[in-house]
Design brief:
Elements: E1 3-10, E2 16-20, E3 27-29, E4 42-50, E5 56-65, E6 71-78, E7 81-86, E8 95-96, E9 110-117, E10 126-134, H1 141-149, H2 158-165, E11 180-181, E12 188-191, E13 200-207, E14 210-218, H3 229-237, E15 241-243, E16 246-248, H4 253-259, E17 267-277, E18 283-294, E19 297-300, H5 301-310, H6 319-335, E20 345-349, E21 355-360, H7 365-388, E22 394-396, H8 402-413, H9 427-437, H10 443-452, E23 458-460, H11 484-497, H12 506-510, H13 512-542, E24 549-558, E25 561-566, E26 572-576, E27 585-588, E28 593-596, E29 602-604, E30 608-617, E31 622-627
Parallel strand pairs: 3-5, 11-18, 12-19
Antiparallel strand pairs: 1-2, 1-4, 2-3, 4-5, 6-7, 6-9, 7-8, 9-10, 13-14, 14-17, 15-16, 17-18, 20-21, 22-23, 24-25, 24-30, 25-26, 27-28, 28-29, 30-31
Helix pairs in contact: 1-13, 2-3, 6-7, 7-11, 8-10
């Protein structure tokens, strides 16, 4: 029946799947077959049969490559034997630790393990402890686990730190040689209240019937030269990674928070673009330069919005910024873009590093103002590099695939909503649907399904446009402190416009395809690590609420259960199908629903439900819930306190 190669994806229930390199459907691997492999190993499988739904099942023929990354887990002593229980339950097996390989760790601590003997059909994996992270309840353990689990580089090399130490402690005259002087332009930074680095500043003034705009960006390329230790570490990281109480930065703090940060009232080198737009928000012209600037103020989104709403002014005029924003927004609306309404939440920690609250992240016009300025500057960067016939690191977003579009069309048909025929869909067609259902009870469901129908944005030296923004060309130019893609665009502009040292080399240009693939992967890695840490924080926040009942919304439907998201704090967890009322449950992919044959109960994506928190595992970020629909209204529906732990024990918490 054929063979295939791919990566093992373990399942918490012991079986697994092989995600095939050729993009064909995943191959099911039985629990018995999984004994000889671990999650994320690369294998070759033989297809042996298809199940009744046509899904392939396989047998492992060859282990092509063992995953070498350390495994994070908790050290336990069971019956005198030392072992580590992986925090990621997809690994499926505990790891035996010889007595002389515990690295002085004590039972209950969180550790990193390196395998010394892989698993086999008849034996467990064996390993040695390479790092002791600390106690299970230590503040910040959520982040310590996440960065190691997803292999986020969190230590700078000695060479990188040595190069950073040699940087000057002031802006020298030689650093500013040949630059355009912008120090008399009242550029301002507008960022979040907790922002640590400021890499963009803006300015606007009326110009005839339209506006002149300036977007100035920190000149990271001046300090981070191609091939240097700083450059190599930035390439490896690909981007900064943001957590509730810290940042794992792409660049060392001396740069990210120092010489590359546009601090108020301090001279800084910058790359800037001066743009003119007409009264309809249409760009008339743009010009790039390398300058020296002095930020006139560090403003927050909230300060700017409050001043605008009250009709007062900050130390600098903001009225021209908002006036320019309104014409840019009008142009965006006319262009037709996809604006999904997906609420974001912010985890706030107390002084001890514990979750104090989970707050909705506001979406203000001041946020959108900066977004529109940055989008326009990014478009100009892509257009300029095309004009110069220079390499460009495009930010691409493909339209939905034919299959996803057909599924979306079928889903919307159930709400008497139609999309234009054919597969040449425009973002405004999708946005029109969102506008139509805005404010209705179906809106969260349709926004969620619309999001899942979209392809994933990525970086590429080959342009296919940006579907979501409805732009023919787009690149990232505005955040070189935290994104390597932007640094590459800066270097290409510097070389193409002959703006001095630090431009793109021929070797770098030849490596654009590999770099694009790499930084697309590091972006996904950072997103997974950030989400993983947030899940752990939310699980810790919920740990003392076991037994409580919450209002929630179904955020995922699978054949093995439902995923639900709690209203208010956004904590997400699983409702196993085994915990649903006794029935034969059928998964309908077309309608994203789970349907009981006997009870006629039905659960569908984005449906509001009442749930009870059954279990919380803070370190793994795992929450288990029970759906209350279909459960008799008995006394046991009342909240119950969490079970008390026995003193002296080290129970598994994952």
């Amino acid at each position: 029946m054929g063979e295939a190669e791919g990566v093992v994806l373990g399942h918490r229930d012991g079986h697994g799947f092989v995600k095939r390199d050729d993009g064909e459907p995943d191959v099911y691997i039985s629990q018995q077959e999984m004994r000889s492999v671990l999650h994320r190993d690369r294998v070759k499988v033989r297809l042996v049969r298809f199940d009744r739904k046509g899904r392939p099942e396989g047998r492992i023929l060859e282990i092509v490559e063992r995953r070498k990354a350390p495994i994070i887990g908790r050290l336990l002593n069971e019956g005198g034997a030392w072992l580590v229980a992986p925090e990621d339950r997809r690994y499926g097996q505990d790891i035996l630790i010889p007595k002389n390989a515990t690295a002085a760790a004590v039972a209950g601590q969180v550790v990193a393990v390196e395998l010394t003997e892989p698993p086999s059909m008849y034996s467990q994996p064996v390993g040695r402890i390479t790092e002791v992270l600390g106690e299970i309840d230590d503040p910040g353990m959520e982040i310590e686990i996440a960065v190691r689990k997803y292999e986020v580089p969190y230590r700078f090399s000695a060479e990188t730190l040595a190069q950073t130490a040699k940087l000057p402690d002031h802006v020298r005259a030689s650093d500013m040689k040949g630059r355009i002087n912008l120090t008399d332009v009242p550029l301002v930074t507008i960022d979040g209240e907790d922002a640590r680095d400021f890499d963009d500043a803006v300015y606007a003034e009326p110009d005839g019937d339209g506006f002149s705009l300036i977007v100035a960006i920190a000149d990271v390329a001046h300090y981070v030269r191609p091939g240097s230790p700083l450059d190599r570490s930035a390439w490896t990281r690909g981007n900064s990674c943001y957590f509730p109480d810290r940042v794992v930065p792409m660049l060392p703090e001396a740069l990210s928070n120092g010489w590359c940060s546009l601090r108020p009232n301090e001279d800084r080198g910058c790359l800037f673009v001066r743009m003119r737009v007409d009264a309809d928000g249409k760009k008339l012209s743009h010009a790039f330069g390398r300058g020296i600037m002095r930020s006139a103020a560090r403003l927050t989104y909230e300060q700017v919005q409050e001043a605008h709403d009250a009709g007062t002014e900050t130390p600098l005029p903001i009225a021209p910024l908002y006036a320019a924003f309104r014409v840019l927004l009008a142009a965006r609306i006319a262009r037709g873009t996809l604006d999904l309404d997906l609420p974001e939440r912010k985890v706030v920690l107390d002084d001890a590093g514990r979750v104090a609250s989970v707050q909705p992240r506001p979406r203000l016009d001041s946020h959108r103002l900066i977004e529109e300025f940055m989008v326009l500057a990014n478009v100009c960067a892509a257009e300029e590099l095309e004009r110069l016939h220079r390499p460009c690191m495009y930010r691409i977003h493909a339209p939905p695939s034919d299959e996803k579009l057909d599924n979306l069309r079928g889903f919307l048909r159930g709400f008497d909503i139609s999309l234009p025929p054919g597969n040449q869909i425009h973002p405004r067609d999708l946005d029109r649907v969102l506008k139509k259902v805005a404010g209705t009870e179906e809106a969260p469901l349709i926004n969620e399904v619309m999001l899942r129908s979209q392809s994933q944005a990525a970086y590429s030296p080959d342009n296919i446009g940006h579907f979501g923004l409805s732009l023919a060309r787009y690149a990232h130019f505005t955040s070189p402190i935290r994104r390597y893609a932007d640094l590459m665009v800066h270097r290409s502009l510097i070389a193409g416009l002959k703006l001095g040292a630090g431009g793109l080399t021929e070797e770098e240009a030849a490596g654009f395809p590999d770099t694009a693939e790499h930084i697309s992967a590091t972006e996904r890695r950072a997103a997974l690590a950030e989400r993983d840490a947030i899940d752990r924080y939310l699980a810790a926040f919920m740990a003392d609420k076991v037994g409580a009942i919450f209002q929630a919304r179904i955020s995922g439907v699978t054949r093995f259960g439902l995923f639900v998201t709690v209203a208010g704090n956004g904590a997400s967890g699983l409702v196993p199908v085994s915990s649903l009322p006794d029935d034969f449950w059928m998964h309908d992919e077309a309608t994203a629903s789970l349907n009981g044959r006997r009870t006629r109960l039905s659960f569908r994506l984005a449906q509001e439900v009442e749930v009870r928190l059954a279990e919380a595992r803070p370190v793994t970020g795992g929450l288990l819930f029970q759906i209350m629909q279909g459960v008799p209204a008995r006394a046991d529906r009342r909240p119950t306190p969490p079970p008390k732990s026995k003193p002296g024990g080290h129970k598994r918490k994952w």
